[in-house]
Fold these 2 entries.
Entry 1:
Amino acid sequence: MRSRLLVLFCISATVRPLMASCGAASCPLDLNALNRPAAGHFAAELSFEYIDQDQPRVGTRAVAVGAVPAEHDQVRTINRGASLLLRYAASDRLLFSATVPYVSHSHLRIEGGRPERWNLSGVGDVTLQMRGRIAEFDSIRRTALWGFAGVKLPAGAHDLTNPEGEIGEIPIQPGTGSTDAIVGLAFESGILRQTSMRGALGSVTLIPLFATIQLRRNTTGAQNYRVGNELQLNAGTVYPLRDRTQLLLQANAKVRGRDTSADLEDHLFTGGRYLFLSPGLRFDAGHGAAWYAMLQVPLYQHVNGIQLTAKRNLVTGVQMRF
């Protein structure tokens, strides 16, 4: 029981197409925090997210569709994604992971007074990552500094079309056609507190804490399109409520640079700065299995030009250690 609560957080990014003028998005969450495998073992996670972007925004201000003159008016994008994450712990200091996403984007825009629709879905780009412990400062509170590095490979389709045969923009394609690099640092620790839980140390439980910084540098991919570089800052904790139920809480910040595209207008409507609060619950089903759900609420959104944004994001998933 106690060992399940003394889980340390780690970052292992799940890369999907990100926010752009056409509204494709993913949640900036550490979805892998509660499922670290023991040395010599594996862990698997299947996560699902739902993001309904139906609110055009200029800067920080919500506006109506068509508020800014453009070649076409973005109306709505519904993003659905599923990601399979597999991890292996070569030791208690070194972990490897692979993420395979499946993404689905339903997009509506108006061009020349005529509605245009895209329903694009498929396997997305695969991400491989390695994470290593750089230093340990306190073995009781598990205070440590970790470093991680990864690569996103161009495995997803990037030339899907709508019913009229028009190829969709890169941000709503399953893949980008680019090879991108990911680097970052994670600081982990914890605080000892009296809780309702009981274990080897009585009712004293280690409440884990984490903070991470991650940079993703993107290269030019399909359609001569380059997704903007991204910086993420994440912090969070987990607090035991009952023997099998824990409260999850994360704060997530993201800074996205503008994309680079041959279309001089579209790339101006990309990138921005975002801050989210992400509460949730996790239920331990026993035998290494767990289920979690998180609601991500935007506290601050500042976009370049006019972009579609969401009022909330939903994420849920199942985890297994073996």
Note: The first helix runs from residue 2 to 5.
Entry 2:
Amino acid sequence: MIRYIAVEGIDGAGKSMVVGAIAGYLEERGIEVLTVREPGGTIAGEAIREILLDRADPLAGWTEALLFAAARAQLAALVVAPALGAGKTVVSDRCVYSSLAYQGAGRGLGMEAVRAVNEAGLQGVWPEKVLLLRVAAEKGLARERIADRISREGLELQQRVAAAYDALAAAEPDRFVVVDASRPIPDVVAAAVAAVGAMT
């Protein structure tokens, strides 16, 4: 059984709604589920989230990447690894692949350089399956109800990130399951839950 599932995609893809639906689906089947979000999920992680997403202060690319990596390492050590060790299934709103796409490709830092930093911090706590909600950048941004610091940067960044996600999915076909997220959100949620049902 798959124990660590992450939901990925550009801003506005529908990740949060899908995470909630997946958790509900698994719980109905008697599976103990923990949902987490990145960045966040710990005291340190939530403080970092505010810096990364809620403030208007500009951040250098590597500052952004290292802050994401720090929040993720804290979440993995204090929350995700213990939950997996206790036999729970973890469903995450974003994961390390966000940093590969956004900072590695979107910011031009290099996906392998960003991967190396995160691998050091995660110590092997890595999602088994990644559900990629694929949607055009224009449509994703149009769906955003509350823009954060990164989504406010606009279309070109999201287009680079979307292309990076496609490249990651192509490079790791055994880990990624791609869901067409261009459809109405209820259809996206249903397709994502069906995909998880096929995994489990």
Note: The domain at 4-199 is CATH 3.40.50.300 (Rossmann fold).
